[in-house]
Design goal:
Blueprint: H1 5-20, E1 32-34, E2 51-60, E3 63-69, E4 75-79, E5 89-93, E6 100-102, H2 104-116, E7 120-125, H3 148-163, H4 165-168, E8 175-180, H5 182-192, E9 214-218, E10 242-247, H6 256-267, E11 272-277, H7 296-306
Parallel strand pairs: 5-7, 5-8, 8-9, 9-10, 10-11
Antiparallel strand pairs: 1-4, 2-3, 3-6, 4-7
Length: about 300
């Protein structure tokens, strides 16, 4: 049975779009590795093929940034430490409202910084768009929902890093997470829902713990709920030590997001350090400007020493 001519033309057009779509590559001779050995759990249709584009209308520190669209096959990229290996590792979650990924501003540039400090960085390109964002209505109909596809990818990646600890010369008890905006929400999810069975085990790696040993949330979102705090983020005493940074003039997520998470962590007796700045807005990444908030990476380095993740 042959396809009708119109349907055939439509399929050829879609294949052509996929073939010519520009796909992000990490550079530096690095390679992306698949998070899943086959089709990811709960795979769903996306509005188009994966692609990357330059965002020039909302420059950060005077420079454009790259946005990845329509990730259906999540990957991780390992940035090995430069110089002395500290034995610590960090899985990085870029932000983008669960709609896109700010892959350089909140991803590869972060890994360059961490690798330069002797920390193995693992950049996760998790699935988007996905919950809480819904591309069917271009809205966030369930703003406080668990971002299931992203959390599946995050849990799996943390377990893979722990599985490869010996091969990568890292300490399996010094594996942290760091994320921005929506990625900051994913940090909170990974830090609290590490035992939540969001997918069926696929191999030996899934027998390992998905709990991070430390966490850094940079201008996180989706945490401050009308009742005070998002009930889908079950903070408990085993939530890892956490560092939070945010600007008081963040008009995208609002400083109350950081404050709500800080309060929840304090109530659970989780070690937490929070830095609030008067100015900085949203999505500043770690590109240096005249604003003091862009010096936050140095504060994280000091905090990692105080928490025993790094040596003095």
């Amino acid at each position: 049975m042959t396809l009708p001519r119109l349907a055939l033309f439509a399929l050829l057009a879609l294949w052509g779009m996929a073939a010519h779509a520009t796909v992000w590559q990490p550079g530096h001779g690095l390679k992306q590795q698949p998070v899943w050995p086959g089709t990811p759990p709960g795979a769903q249709a996306l509005p188009g093929p994966e692609s990357v584009s330059a965002v020039t209308t909302e420059r950060v520190a005077g420079k454009p940034w790259q946005a990845i669209h329509n990730v259906s096959r999540p990957t991780y990229t390992v940035y090995p430490p430069k110089g002395k290996n500290t034995g610590a590792a960090v899985v990085v979650f870029p932000g983008g409202g669960f709609e896109i990924l700010a892959i350089d501003l909140e991803g590869s540039e972060v890994c360059d910084w961490l690798a330069a400090r002797g920390i193995t960085c693992v950049l996760l390109k998790y699935r988007v768009p996905g919950l809480p964002y819904d591309w069917h209505c271009d809205c966030r109909a369930h703003n406080f929902a668990i971002p299931v596809p992203a959390l599946q990818d995050a849990q799996r990646t943390i377990r893979l890093v722990r599985q490869q600890a010996s091969a990568w010369h890292i300490d399996p008890h010094r594996i942290g997470v760091l994320g921005f905006s929506a990625g900051g929400y994913l940090v909170a999810q990974a830090s609290t829902n590490y035992d939540l069975p969001v997918y069926k085990p696929v191999d030996a790696a899934d027998r390992l713990s998905a709990r991070p040993d430390f966490a850094v949330a940079v201008y996180p979102g989706h945490l401050a709920a009308p009742e005070g705090f998002n009930r889908n983020v079950p903070v408990n005493r085993r939530t890892p030590p956490t560092f939070i940074v945010m600007a008081e003039d963040d008009h995208v997520d609002g400083v109350e997001q950081a404050q709500a998470y800080y309060n929840a962590l304090k109530e659970a007796d989780v070690p937490v350090e929070m830095h609030l700045y008067a100015h900085g807005g949203h999505a500043f990444g770690l590109r240096p400007t005249k604003l003091p908030i862009t010096h936050w990476p140095a504060l994280v380095e000091t905090w990692l020493v105080t928490e025993g993740v790094l040596s003095p």
